[in-house]
Amino acid sequence: MNAMTGSDTAGDDRAAWRPDDPIDESATAGACVDANGIVTRWSEGARRLLGYRSTEVVGRPAASLIAGEPPAETLRSLKTLPRWNGTATLLHRDGHHLAVNLLAHRREPGGEDEGEDEGEDQGGGEWLLVAPLARSASPLHDDTLVMWAFTRSPLTTALYDTGLRLRRANADMERVIGLPEAAMQGLRVSEIVVDPESDRTEQCMRRALETGEQQHLQQSLHLAGHESASVWTTLLTPVRDAEGTIRGVLLSAYDVTEEHLARGRLALLNEASIRIGSTLDLARTAQELADVAIPQLADFVTVDLLPAIEGGDDPRAGSPPSPVMLRRVAYQSVLEGCPEVVVERGTVAAYPDDSTAARCLTAGRPLIENVTASAMDRVASQTPDRAERMRHYGFHSVLAVPMRARGITLGVATFSRHRHPEPFEQDDLLLGEEITARAAVCIDNARRYSRERRTSLTLQSSLLPQRLPPQAAVDVASRYLPASTQAGVGGDWFDVIPLSGARVALVVGDVVGHGIQASAAMGRLRTAVRTLADVDLPPDELLTHLDDMVIHLSAEAESAADVVGDIGATCLYAVYDPVSRRCAMARAGHPVPALATPDGAVVFPDIPAGPPLGLGGLPFEVTEIELPEGSVLALYTDGLIEARGRDLDEGLDALRKVLARPAPSLESTCDTVLQTLLPDHPADDVALLMARTRALDAAHVATWDVPPDPSAVAETRKNATRQLAAWGLDEAAFVTELVVSELVTNAIRYGGAPIQLRLIRDRNLICEVSDGSNTTPHLRRARTFDEGGRGLLLVAQLTQGWGTRQTYTGKTIWAEQTLSPPSPPSTQTD
Fold first, then answer.
1. In sequence order, what DSSP letters do the residues of 74-142 get, joined into one string?
2. Residue 691: predicted pLDDT
3. Cα–Cα distance between 569 and 588 in angstroms, integer?
4. Which end of the chain is more exposed for a tag (fewer CB within 10 A), N or C?
5. Using alpha carbons only, what angle is made at residue 637 by residues 635 and 642, rounded to the nearest 5 degrees?
């Protein structure tokens, strides 16, 4: 306590500034009186003034030191004001009366105002009483000192001597402090303004006296008589006489509160431009708006949107219907846990027509409303729970700003104050508009993106296989994960395509880019792959045709005004034959598949990478490997293994470890792969296709070499009939004999050696005839008197399907029949 000097402050560091300290602490009489009027402290200056020692006064009523009864007006002032000054008549120890200029400060426990109502006795506080003693004769005439100092100070100015005691104050200083010069003369800064910043000021004044250099500091002060804190820039200039001797310190201060607030608003706008809109997530963007406004602009912020917004739809034009329905999306508070909240996130609440939010949306402009008693009564009559929270936390000012972007009203942001003592003003309204406008644009971007993403996901889902058909060659399981909302929907796809001869094609691909264009391009490529697979092209030839198609798509994209950039893609195409257990694979810039064999080994086959689709003019190579029955082939897109913070080798190693572990099913293996490699939402689309191979052994396949002689047709037909009888397929014998006769006859008549007949029994019955000719047969309509031309027509009519595929030594013509499920055993008895 600055005023406590002498024996009561012997341990104070400031009293022991230095041995030759020119500051006389005892030049001020100081005392403390508690809320009950008892003297609790007594300074050396007080002893010099009234003659009482500390032990004679501390613990006694302060009234015993006053001559006569204090005026009633003085008593009322002491009860209601934080500071009092005036003349008091005191009793000296020897009995004479002494008139003293007295300055009294109220100090609350802990040094802070605890918010009791005005006019009530604030128990627990104390009064600090200070009075200057008679000054000794100054070696320098005051008028001369004032002339030197005040001619240099155009601002709020006060002159202090080398004892740091005020000698003169100009009119602006009196206005700012709220005291006349006479009440401040002889007192130090810490005795005139009771604030922690006073100590900083005195330290700088000491430094100015010691160094002779001007000191500069910026302070935030809550001065008595002022409603709010103010920011000041203060210059402390040593005052020298003609010989250069320092005679005092000139304090010059100017109010920079407005500039400080303006800089704070600019800083908040800059922070808002950085923090708001960091993602394309609507709810997160709204929360960023609420977060950035706390605590500088408001104490409590809510963001409410029209319900249609979160679905990505445009709200209807005009004012919202009554009552206004809003969905709470975000909120934030200076209080931990946001206890002011009435409406939780995700809840749709009704707002009456005369509520601040509803009037703001109807008017289409921001509103400031001070929470008066009548306004509180109106809220209580409509939404009592809100009124109860507002009363409890002391809401006194509300700012509502409509959220509009591109001509669409999205919702409203509401800023409230209950800790800030100042109500919202015009500058706050402009600041709220600025940050809300930025958030509105970002929210509208997120809304539009959500709508496009939903469209892309719907399109992509319709283009991907809804379910994978059962195959005799493989058991399959698959997964597809769309990218995070930040990245957007991509063009990853997979497919399982049944081929002739019980074979199956496994496909996985990835279109470069994201969005609807990528999904549409993916759909066109998937359709093209299915079309080319029906022709039974080898993997390398299929990728060559697909490469040409991507080049054509890119050319179309360049000529389209709404599409930017080339179209590129990668693809892996594999064909597995369960009879030979051989798998032919080719890839176009796509990640290599993983192969897990039944013995627990996991390898990545050495398949030439090939160029990505769309480059053109470069070849693709086929790799053919034999797979043990029960092998698992894992095909995937790069989003599975190329996660942020992990290099490619780490991703492949993690995949290898998962596939090496035993699993009850392919479905569980898929889940484990995704959980291990992608614990969080993927940054890129992910397609995963896993296939466990089967094998068709001799019990399901029968093969005969056929001599190129027409007489061999009958024997071949008999061999096929006997094999069907062995398989228990006598009901298929009639059609099979016709098919075998036609296909073998055509091979002998129009093809070339070697000729071979093969019957395959899986879910269907497949008849294949191979020969050494590359000539492809075609259906034709036979004329009335033609002797031939009706055989393939009969085959097409009697079978489920037929076709031709080229081989390295010729061609194979095949026909497939659907087998009827076996009839259940009869339960009839004689």
1. HHHHHHH-SEEEEEEEEE-TTS-EEEEEEEEEEE-GGGS---PPTTS--TT-EEEEEEEPPPPPPSS-H
2. 95
3. 8
4. C
5. 120
Judge whether residue 9 has pLDDT over 70. Answer: no
Question: What confidence score (pLDDT) does residue 320 get?
Answer: 76
Q: Position of tokens 């930025």?
A: 438
Model pLDDT, residue 777: 79
DSSP state, 6?
G
The pLDDT of 422-429, averaged and rounded, is 90
**Residue with tokens 């609440």, as numbered in its chain:** 349
> How far apart, in Å, do the first and last CA atoms of the chain sit?
119
Name every residue whose Cβ is closer than 8 Å to that of residue 532 and which is 6 or more positions away in sequence.
Answer: 542, 545, 546
Half-sphere exposure of 515 (CA within 13 A, CB side): 8
Q: Cβ distance 160 to 249 under 8 Å?
A: yes
SS3 letters across 16-38: HCCCCCCCCHHHEEEEEEECCCE
pLDDT tens-digit map of 639-696: 888 876 677 888 899 999 999 998 889 999 999 999 998 877 677 788 899 999 999 8
For tokens 């009293």, the residue is: 15
The structure's pTM equals: 0.55
Cα separation, 450 vs 282, in Å, equals 8
Residue linked to tokens 């290599």: 592
DSSP state of 66: B
Backbone φ, ψ for residue 434 (5° rounding): -65, -50
Helix (H) or strand (E) holding 326: strand 324-333
Cα 279 to Cα 453: distance, rounded to the nearest angstrom: 14
Contact 412, 402 (CB under 8 A): yes
Question: Exposure string (b/e) for 133-147, b if CB count within 10 Å is 16 or more?
Answer: beeeeeebeeeebee
- Whether 536 has a pLDDT exceeding 70, the answer reads yes
Give the Cα separation of 139 and 147 in Å (integer).
Answer: 16
- The residue ranking higher by pLDDT, 562 or 101, is 101
Integer Cα distance of 708 and 720 in angstroms: 17
The position carrying tokens 């693709």 is 620
pLDDT single digits (tens) 152-191: 556 788 999 999 999 988 888 888 888 998 899 999 998 9
- Do residues 301 and 413 lie in contact, with contact meaning Cβ atoms separated by under 8 Å? yes
Alpha-carbon distance of 413 to 411, in angstroms, equals 7
**How far, in Å, CA of 469 to CA of 478, rounded?**
12
If you search the block for the tokens 């293996």, which residue do you land on?
669
Cα–Cα distance list, 399 to 327, 384, 423, 538, 617 (Å):
18, 20, 9, 70, 65
> What's the pLDDT at 591?
93
pLDDT (0 to 100) of residue 176: 87
pLDDT at 635: 95
| Phi-psi map region of 502: left, alpha, beta (phi>0 left; psi -120 to 50 alpha) | left
CA dist 336 and 449 (Å) reads: 33
CA angle 324, 326, 328 (to 5 degrees): 155
Distance CA 249, CA 475 (A): 93
Round to whole Å and give the CA distance between 193 and 205: 15
State how far the Cα of 218 lies from the Cα of 227, in Å rounded to an integer: 20
Separation CA 427–CA 645 (nearest Å): 45
Contacts of 341 (CB under 8 A, 6+ apart): 302, 331, 333, 389
Q: Which residue has the tokens 């009203």?
A: 409
How far apart (Å, rounded) are the C-alpha atoms in residues 590 and 561? 30
Element (H, E) at 759: strand 755-761
Give kind and range of the element (H or E) at residue 818: strand 810-818
Least confident window among 15-19, 164-168, 591-595, 815-819: 15-19
Please spell the DSSP secondary structure of 770-830, one letter per residue: EES--PPP---PPPTT-SSS-HHHHHHHHSSEEEEEEETTEEEEEEEEEPPPPPPPP----
Quickly count helices (H) and strands (E) in the chain: 22, 31
Measured distance CA(398)–CA(315) in Å, rounded: 26
